[in-house]
């Protein structure tokens, strides 16, 4: 290590950090954020505990870094591609479709840190809970903005309450996750899509036109 | 104990069992079903471990008995009172209203075993998971029946898909629970009620009459 240049050392450090985060994401997907311990990560990666500590000073720091990496990937898969769509209903619908795809492909086979975290941390105060809540709030703010833009573009009716729409979208997604994971239902993605279509339909500015477009 | 009559002994045994179950429900409300151990219950009740074992032969048996007692209370608070309402929309709406009240009064201040259990057991096979899934399926079958009756009574449109309606009702309730517990939102019961009103509205046989009533 001592012979490497500064750049090489940084790259190596970043690589090790990435290996730890990858192991942490995979462990959290099985055990939840509460299953993340420095010891478990050391065991998964074949590193020493002190080696892990060199990159993450505490268990809490590791949990928060894992949550941030999870969010970064979620954004890359769901949020950023949707921004390529025009503001308004198209973007909102794309957000939802990509979200369903993400939950179906990534989270149902493993677990969703947001949703298992919601249960693990709902009454456990501390920095991890704060990070989890602010991450979910960030995602919901993005949904809220997409709904507001769809109203501004007159795709959704001006009486639409964006908070209510976001509440209902989130409930649909919790239902999808619950039914697929616990009840082993194989049509919950389809049901979620139908529920969202009805939700949007109810808030369209011209529902009579939409009926023909939807079918 | 040896001097008591058979009836007295039985009553005492039942009383002890009830004390254990009460402690188990309270512990599970804080820690989830996974937090239930014979040792923890012994500590809570001041009994010996072998005393608890005399009533529940294993940790799993205790977890299942706790789940059943939880369900019995849920039924008594939500399901049975709704049966006093006439079949059809009135009964369905009463089921939902009592469910929201139950979640708001009992489950949000503590925790909902069904919902924390959904995360704890979604990928943990075994008898507790089986019991949890069949209990939730039982409750959903009751909701399904109430929807079907509302269609038979021509309160809801004949094209209504009861499975879809139950999926959406469950999602609304998961959203209520999530937002109240994790996000500390104070209007989630109100949002859940609005979401359900819209859901029913969309499936009414005479929506044009209903629009005037809702506003």
SSE arrangement:
2 copies of one chain form a homodimer.
Chain A: H1 6-31, H2 38-45, H3 49-55, H4 59-82, H5 89-107, H6 113-120, H7 127-152, H8 162-181, H9 188-203, H10 207-214
Helix pairs in contact in A: 1-2, 1-4, 2-3, 4-5, 4-7, 5-7, 5-8, 5-9, 7-8, 8-9, 9-10
Descriptive overview:
Chain A is an all-alpha fold. The first copy, chain A, has one domain (63-214): Tetracycline Repressor, domain 2 (Orthogonal Bundle). In chain A, 75% of the residues lie in helices and 0% in strands. Chain A is built from ten helices and no strands. The radius of gyration of chain A is 20 Å and the shape is elongated. The model of chain A is unreliable at 209-215 (pLDDT under 50). The A-B interface holds A 30, 32, 111, 115-116, 118-123, 132-133, 136-137, 163-164, 167-168, 170-176, 178-179, 181-183, 188, 191-192, 194-195, 198, 202 and B 30, 32, 111, 115-116, 118-123, 132-133, 136-137, 163-164, 167-168, 170-176, 178-179, 181-183, 188, 191-192, 194-195, 198, 202.
């Amino acid at each position: 290590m001592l012979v490497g240049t500064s750049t090489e050392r940084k790259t190596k450090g970043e690589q090790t950090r990435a290996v730890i985060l990858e192991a942490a994401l995979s462990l959290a997907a099985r055990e939840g954020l509460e299953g993340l311990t420095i010891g478990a990560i050391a065991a998964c990666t074949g590193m020493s505990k002190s080696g892990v500590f060199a990159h993450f000073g505490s268990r809490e720091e590791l949990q928060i870094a894992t949550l941030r990496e999870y969010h970064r990937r979620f954004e890359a898969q769901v949020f950023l591609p949707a921004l390529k769509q025009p503001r308004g209903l198209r973007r909102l619908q794309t957000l939802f479709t990509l979200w369903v795809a993400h939950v179906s492909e990534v989270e149902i086979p493993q677990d969703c840190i947001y949703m298992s975290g919601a249960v693990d941390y709902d009454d456990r105060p501390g920095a991890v809970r704060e990070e989890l809540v602010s991450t979910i709030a960030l995602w919901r703010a993005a949904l809220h903005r997409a709904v507001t833009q769809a109203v501004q573009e007159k795709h959704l009716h001006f009486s639409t309450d964006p908070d209510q729409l976001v509440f209902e979208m989130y409930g649909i997604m919790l239902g999808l996750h619950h039914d697929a994971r616990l009840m082993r239902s194989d049509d919950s993605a389809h049901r979620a899509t139908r529920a969202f279509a009805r939700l949007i339909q109810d808030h369209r500015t011209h529902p009579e036109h939409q009926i023909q477009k939807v079918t």
